[in-house]
Design a protein that fits this description.
Number of strands: 4
Structural class: mainly beta
Helix content: under 10%
Largest sheet: 2 strands, antiparallel
Number of helices: 0
Shape: elongated
């Protein structure tokens, strides 16, 4: 069976365990992640309700500092 790991941000060894509800049987597999998916962050946000780039969610990433600039390069938001 092919296994897929989503939302893994750090390379390393992960153990995937599957349990079959009907029987209670379990199986596990160690998966080594060496190359991570490209981090895709939009180059612009426009929270205007049109369904395109209305939200900016980086909660899945280990963000230490965030700075948002307007189209003129002026810092409009910053948070550690």
């Amino acid at each position: 069976t092919d296994l897929s790991i989503d939302n893994v941000l750090t390379a390393g060894t992960y153990t995937i365990e599957v349990m079959f509800n009907d029987t209670g049987c379990t199986a596990s597999e160690d998966v080594i992640v060496t190359e991570l998916e490209t981090c895709v962050i939009p180059q612009g946000i426009s929270p205007n309700g049109d369904g395109l780039n209305d939200f900016f969610d980086v909660s899945s990433y280990d963000v230490q500092n965030l700075k948002v600039f307007n189209r003129n390069g002026r810092l409009v938001y910053e948070k550690d």
